[in-house]
Amino acid sequence: MDCPSTRLLLAYRRPGGPAELAPQDVAELDLHLAECPACTAVARRHDRFDAAVGPAMRAVAVPAGLRDRLLTAALARSGAIWRQTLYRYATAASILVVFALTVAGVVLAFRPAFDTDQVGSRSAMRYEAPEPAVRDFLVEADVPTTLPYDFDFALLDTPGQVGYDRIDGRYVPWVQFRLPPRPGDIRPNVAKVLIVRKSSFKLDPDHFRTTQNSFINVLAVPDDGRGVGYVIQFTTPNLEPFLKPALPRF
Question: Among residues 150, 248, 227, 159, which one has the least CA distance to residue 193?
Fold first, then answer.
């Protein structure tokens, strides 16, 4: 045991100290004191001080009821501290509640009105007219911006909703619609509308006609006087899933 540890343990060796030392600590302390004159001198000073002051302290009479008064005072002080702490937390909670209610009131006050006319107009545009990017594509392709059937423009395939196919050295513009995927689908269901210019192809009935194979149906729509014909390739049994839904009756 070294000197600093010894002098720390001397306080626990003194009569009436805070706690008793373990037997092992007592043995090591006594061994060090036997070998260290400096620590022995310190221990003797502690003993002389205790011998002089201890009896005087023990001779002072303890007032009757002092223990109970001290305990009562300590409990009262503890209760006051708890009440102050609780009051502070309650005050903070009240402030937070008032702030939250104020914010909620402001949010509710500035809610936008639900404009059914605006929503209806947006839905109508989505169902009845191609979005601007598609319309601009058809204008640039110099073909009509309306299609031969009432397609549901909400099903425009994005990305890949417009483009060109090169057929016999000529570019044919197209617009493609896609159904939402369903469980069990092994391939996407699409309807691709090719817009064929009479200035680029002959639309004679022997070749420009409706047909089908194992995977796709081909519907030919002859020119209706606008200078184009349409070839609609679709993967469903009929074209109905790609057309605008009937409006509900109320």
Answer: 150
